[in-house]
Amino acid sequence: MDRRVKWIGIGVIGVVLILCIAMITMYLKPNSVAGTPQDVVFTVDKDQTGAEIGDMLYEKGIISSPTTFRLALRLTGSMDKLQQGYYQIPQNASLRQVIALLQKGKLQEIKVIIPEGYTIQQIADELEKDGLGPKEAFLEKAKTYVPYQYMYGPAKVDYRVEGFLFPSTYEIPVGSTPEEILKRMAGEMNKQLTPEIRAQIEAKHMTIFEFITLASLVEKEALFDEDRPIIAAVFLKRLQIGMPLQSCASIQYILGYPKPHISIEDTKLPSPYNTYMHVGLPPGPIANPGMKSMEAVLNAPSTDYLFFVADKEGHHHFTKTYEEHMKVVESIYGE
């Protein structure tokens, strides 16, 4: 009997030790529930309980178990130390890091990453995801926000600011209005358009509006940096001889999503942005280009190439004639 009690006691101690080790591991180990690490912004409201906060963190993929979160709060004496406000927490943060951040108080600024080639719609989605207000409010303001005269082009567009919000990482104060955010991003683009760059644009006999429009096409067509200057050169050559640009990126802009393969029917879509049907540049930029695409336009080499096609890895192949172009297309896609 005594021996049985002894073994039961040892078993209980063993289970407790295993649970303790598991708890400590979950407390210290970075969260692996989410895919790629990224910051998640959320709000802790006044009088929200630790259990409610745990459920919210679990739903956003920041923690792997709300039960473990609540237990960790109790064991560390942090249940009543979590503060209300805005928070920005990496999805791969450990439970210890999450609890520590939630005790520091609300954010004063939110980090927002705007990649090269984002459209105004994508920027609005990103701002909403990061907790900086509804995208509808941002898009509504973007329709009328035109701080610089060079944003005006010859044709009507939905968003004059499209193309003129510089892709970068921004620290945006919590509570910023759509106009304040637009002012920050458009101001950064204006800053990047240095006197030297403006002189280069003028030397190419282009307006800033035309330059940004062309750079946006290059941005959306190119996946690899080495292709950008040649793509720009092909577009410039076509503009020079009055040949339609026939940019698949312009069709994707009309469609509103990056369709992998553009069909013949797609190239006939009735839109002023359809560069298969209309000669010259589209009415305005189709995305917000980064500096590499702008530099590609400025430094485009002289070329006799008139055609290009991307292979399945995204590398572009350039040809001088339509016959050569179709041979390359057939060799890549078998069509």
TrEMBL record:
Entry's Gene Ontology molecular function annotations: lytic endotransglycosylase activity
EC annotation from Swiss-Prot or TrEMBL: 4.2.2.29
Residue ranges the record marks as coiled coil: none
Superkingdom of source: Bacteria
A Pfam cross-reference name: YceG
Transmembrane segments: 7-28
InterPro entries noted in UniProt: MLTG-like
Keyword DNA-binding on entry: no
GO cellular component terms, A-Z: plasma membrane
Keyword Lyase: yes
Cellular localization per UniProt: Cell membrane
Keyword vocabulary terms for this entry: Cell membrane, Cell wall biogenesis/degradation, Lyase, Membrane, Transmembrane, Transmembrane helix
Catalysis: reaction(s): a peptidoglycan chain = a peptidoglycan chain with N-acetyl-1,6-anhydromuramyl-[peptide] at the reducing end + a peptidoglycan chain with N-acetylglucosamine at the non-reducing end
UniProt GO BP: cell wall organization; peptidoglycan biosynthetic process
Site (Important for catalytic activity): 221
Record membrane topology: Single-pass membrane protein
Role according to the record: Functions as a peptidoglycan terminase that cleaves nascent peptidoglycan strands endolytically to terminate their elongation.
Assigned protein family: Belongs to the transglycosylase MltG family.
NCBIfam families named in the record: endolytic transglycosylase MltG
Protein name, per record: Endolytic murein transglycosylase
Organism, scientific name: Veillonella ratti
Species lineage: Bacteria, Bacillati, Bacillota, Negativicutes, Veillonellales
Originating gene: mltG
